[in-house]
Design goal:
With about 200 residues, this protein is mainly α. It is built from ten helices and two strands, in the order αββααααααααα. The chain has helices spanning about 5-15, 30-45, 55-75, 75-85, 90-95, 100-115, 120-130, 145-160, 160-170, 175-190, and strands at about 15-20, 25-30. α2 (about 30-45) runs antiparallel to α3 (about 55-75), α4 (about 75-85) crosses α8 and α6 runs antiparallel to α7 (about 120-130).
Length: about 200
């Protein structure tokens, strides 16, 4: 198997484009990457985290893994990539959205993508992926795209346990509370993984 080159993947994906169905204008995905990465830096400040931590250890790995799974399972990579980008967007805007971030994030993605000329059917598929990515609100996944995003989110939690601990510690939690949070997060993440 070929080794994964994260730098090349990042360069290739930043230059991906889509055509606005209303205006015919060709636009780049780069603006979505910048939007999410910049908002994650603001989020990190509110969480007392190292700036860039959320992007580096959670968001980027989710996007990267979701796109790799999309390639592996022949899923629609555009749907998977945009859903992965926006899957925690509502959290980034306000952590008080945590319990409902999947619903709010799907609606925010819909607003942004509709404004940029994506068609309704495409947007609905992106929204379904975002709505069904949560481990604490386990829902049946009906499409391979939903599986790619949910599995990628779980993979990032399983792959970045130290980041989860650091995040909770930055919030001022004691060791036992951090430990319990991480154990529960890992259990939920593992339980939501598909059999694929």
């Amino acid at each position: 198997a070929k080794n994964f080159d994260a730098t090349q993947w990042w360069q290739d994906n930043q230059t991906r484009t889509y055509q606005n169905t209303q205006t015919g204008e060709v636009l780049s995905y780069e603006k979505y990457y910048k939007l999410i990465e910049e908002q994650s830096k603001i989020f990190d400040k509110t969480q007392n985290c190292e700036i860039g931590q959320t992007w580096k250890y959670h968001l980027f790995p989710v996007i990267k893994n979701a796109c790799m799974l999309a390639d592996k399972y022949s899923a629609n990579k555009d749907i998977v990539e945009l859903a992965a980008l926006f899957h925690d967007y509502a959290d980034l805007l306000d952590m008080n959205n945590r319990d409902n971030h999947h619903v709010l994030g799907a609606n925010l993605a819909e607003e942004i993508l509709a404004k940029d000329g994506f068609d309704k059917d495409f947007i609905d598929k992106v929204k379904s992926c975002i709505l069904n990515h949560r481990a604490s609100v386990v829902k049946e996944k009906f499409t391979i795209e939903e599986i790619c995003v949910a599995d990628a989110d779980a993979m990032s939690h399983l792959d970045s346990v130290v980041e989860l601990i650091c995040w909770r510690a930055y919030l001022g939690e004691d060791i036992m509370t951090c430990n319990n949070f991480v154990k529960e997060k890992i259990k939920k993440s593992y339980a939501k993984m598909s059999n694929e």
